[in-house]
Amino acid sequence: MWQELIDRALEAKLKAIAPFSRFPVGAALMTDSGIIYEGCNIESSSYGLTMCAERVALFKALSSGERQFSAIAIASNADQFCPPCGACRQVLWDFTRGIPVILISKSGRSIQYNLADFFPHAFDEGFLSHE
Length: 131
Ligand code: THU
What we know:
Mean pLDDT: 97
Order of helices and strands: HEEHEHEEH
Strand order of the largest sheet: 2-1-3-4-5
Number of strands: 5
CATH architecture: 3-Layer(aba) Sandwich
Bound molecules: tetrahydrodeoxyuridine
């Protein structure tokens, strides 16, 4: 069902800039209208400034005016299925809520979760109400 999204995440992984970790990651985020935004991790010599593939894809989509998302695929070279990091879980939750998350392993196998599986008891803007 998500084959195109999976293929685009694998393509995005090839563009990763990961000379320090040597851990390339690719992400592909689909909008409700079917447009796909790719992202790869981009590492800085000041390690903490590195940006994950998922947030690159999300920020590209958001800055293009997109607001409605249907799924994200994430590819890495890990033998196991590599889930999004904590920071990406929060930001993805802020803008997508419970979308399907398809993880792709080094061998190309995939498995589908939901973002809510990775992020129970989430913080969101609802807690910021002062009324
Ligand atoms: N990385 C991602 O791109 N996404 C994640 O969810 C996990 C980590 C990147 C950041 C860094 O460039 C490398 O993987 C190792 O942490």
